[in-house]
Amino acid sequence: MTSGRPDLTGRQPQAIHSAFAVLEEVARAGPGVSAREISASLGMPRATVYRLLNLLVEDEYLVRLPDLSGFALGAKVGRLVGAHRQDAERETGAILADLRSRVRGGVHLASLKGHRVVVLNVDPDFPLSDPDRLASEPGCSALGRLILAEGESRPGHQPIPYAVQVDQLVPGFGCLAAAVRDADGTLVAGLALALPAGRLRDPSALWAMVAGDVARLAAVLGRVSG
Amino acid sequence: MRELSRAVAAPPRVLGVSAISPMAGLERRAIGMVDVLAQSVGATAPTAAATTAPALIAGQTGGSVLGCLVLAWVLAGLVNFTLGQFTRRMRAPGSLYTFTTRGLGTWAGFASAAAQLAGYAFLCMYCLVVAAVAVLPLVPGGSSGGRVATCLGVAVLGLACFLVLRRGIRLSARITLIVELVAVAGLLVAMSAVLAQAGWSGLAAPLASAWPAPHTLVAGIALGTTAFVGFESAAALGREARRPFRTIPRAMRWTVIGVGVAYVFSAYTQQIGAKAFDVPLGGNELVVPQLAGHTGIPGVAYVLEAALATSFLACAIASFTALSRVVFTLGREGLLPRAVGSADPLRGTPSGALVAVVPGVVGLPIVMMALGSSPASLMLPLISVSAVGFLGSYLLAAVAAPVFLHRIGELSRRTLVIPTLTALVLAAIVLTYIIVVARDDRTAFVIVLLVAAAATAAGFVAHRLRPHAISEMGLFDETTLGDLLGAADPVAGVR
């Protein structure tokens, strides 16, 4: 027994690694993947895969499909990642609330993943003027312009920090969209500040005012999208 | 983690999974580890078996009780490993019947159903008769041995079990557990008293007894194995247990380990006590009360009798529980009338199955007593038939295990070798046990033949007249949409 214990603890990190590899493989291959297929694609010994699968089924991270040979991700996986996501939502909410108390204007957060504008958090005091046009005509909104500029930027160049539009949606008003990037520099979201045109005359100063908040948002969003 | 996050963000659509389980209606995820353990321990009735098994084995082998019990313990461990292959993969209220059907098909499934129904039903009858006989002297004006009084006792206890079981699995499991704990404590007190009185001399004697001839040894192991039957009954709670793929194998494993310790301790103590007080052990049904009497401690014999009676009652409840789940499954499949597959909508109990099984189980011993059998002459045949049923259903499941694993593509060397070995040993044990029963107990042998004939006939009739029900055989509590990733979000679930 004395030699068994250190051996077990020594192997445990490897076992956790393997368990995640199995979960990841079930996610990759899709529902119905069999133990044999998982073992083949991961190059793991079959007996190990059977044991890990049964443990993951015991813990309900995986479920056996009615044919008993196929596996699928269990509801518990969603809860695991879902809890993580809720934390992130709470943190972004706090950052936005802080910004809204400092900026006298609309503060919105939108996801720009896949070069599509999906509004995540709208300032309750300043509703969006035209949410439909935001999605259909990228050129008329600051968030859309951020995506367009990202598409035109060449590799090696400094990524653009923000985009601006004035008078495009509502005369006398405009918007600055600050780019939120993940650790790789990929554009993941945009922080939009909707303000009267007069306050957008010096966008770089405006950007500098919120740069710290943008970095904090990037850290939180980078964690969930990883 | 990229693929995992992607799957969480957009759960994939899963084909072939329905919204409702074929076992819907039974309560789901209602009971925890302790209650599942209570089911297995209760059906095994360790107090009763620890009291009677050593005398039975000694009567058969003329000594080496410990050796036979330890080998039977190892065999129970092998059976547990084999059944674990199923209980970690399938939540099946039909338990061994469903496992066998999934591995070997419908004919073997039929044989398993008959074996399992006989196992649980006759165990139940045995428990009710013994409990009635034990309880009667404690009732004012009652005396044990009277046929009419025993019939009444069986009926009243059967009704009591029915009422408890109908209230729901939580209550019945709790009652089983408390009753069995009291019984085990009573036995331990009595046994400790015997050991304390016997003195230190001769403590090593039971370990030194000689091994019997091979065929006698097999007969001894067969009797020893019957002491462990019932441990598998937690499998019937597949739907009702929380985290069933963990709790059920665990409950079965700990039952085998725990009752094994109790049996070895009890056999050891009885052998020492028998020698110290010069009480015959082999075939002596009253060895424990007699030993307790020799301790000279007032009340020990009474505690023991109360413990035994309660242990049998717990065993009756646990056997009814498992029996009703098997019958419920047969009803859902359409092999039995659909009405027995109905569940109580409020309590989640298999009410139709309970209504079907309780009168039969209570009625048969009453009919046999009405035909002239004395309660005492009834006990051995009932328990022998039950043991043949259990051993037969284990054998079929052990043969089915590697086939099943091969079918789902998860057969490994270990899961081929151990179940095959288990099946070979069980085949020898079943055969020997049937020979012992045929030689010693005509009534039991006739009942076994009748059950086998009835099952075969039912098999032919069902295959001919109910092809749809045959195609439904092997239903279990399968994964439903609610178990899948994305179930919490109805929109995601549709994708």
Q: What is the strand and helix layout of this fold?
A:
The complex is a heterodimer of chains A (226) and B (495).
Chain A: H1 4-29, E1 33-34, H2 35-42, H3 46-58, E2 62-64, E3 70-73, H4 75-102, E4 106-111, E5 118-121, H5 131-136, H6 142-152, E6 162-166, E7 173-181, E8 187-196, H7 203-225
Antiparallel strand pairs in A: 1-3, 2-3, 4-5, 4-8, 6-7, 7-8
Helix pairs in contact in A: 1-3, 2-3, 4-7
Chain B: H1 2-9, H2 33-44, H3 46-61, H4 65-87, H5 95-104, H6 106-135, H7 147-167, H8 169-198, H9 214-226, H10 244-277, H11 287-295, H12 300-333, H13 351-370, H14 375-407, H15 413-440, H16 442-465, H17 467-472, H18 490-494
What does this structure look like?
- The complex is a heterodimer of chains A (226) and B (495).
- Chain A has helices at residues 4-29, 35-42, 46-58, 75-102, 131-136, 142-152, 203-225; strands at residues 33-34, 62-64, 70-73, 106-111, 118-121, 162-166, 173-181, 187-196.
- With 226 residues, chain A is α+β, with helices and mostly antiparallel strands.
- Chain A folds into two domains: 4-73, Winged helix-like DNA-binding domain superfamily/Winged helix DNA-binding domain (Arc Repressor Mutant, subunit A); 82-225, Beta-Lactamase (2-Layer Sandwich).
- A five-stranded antiparallel sheet of chain A has the order 5-4-8-7-6, with helices on both faces. In chain A, strands 1-3-2 form a three-stranded antiparallel sheet.
- In chain A, β2 and β3 (70-73) form a beta hairpin.
- With 495 residues, chain B is mainly α.
- Chain B has a single domain, classed as Amino acid/polyamine transporter I.
- In chain B, 72% of the residues lie in helices and 0% in strands.
- Chain B has 18 helices and no strands.
- Chain B has helices at residues 2-9, 33-44, 46-61, 65-87, 95-104, 106-135, 147-167, 169-198, 214-226, 244-277, 287-295, 300-333, 351-370, 375-407, 413-440, 442-465, 467-472, 490-494.
- In chain B, α5 (95-104) packs across α14 and α14 packs across α16 (442-465).
- The longest helix of chain B has 34 residues, at 244-277.
- Residues 489-495 of chain B have low confidence and may be disordered.
- The chains are: A alpha+beta (226), B mainly alpha (495).
- The interface between A and B is large, with 39 and 40 residues.
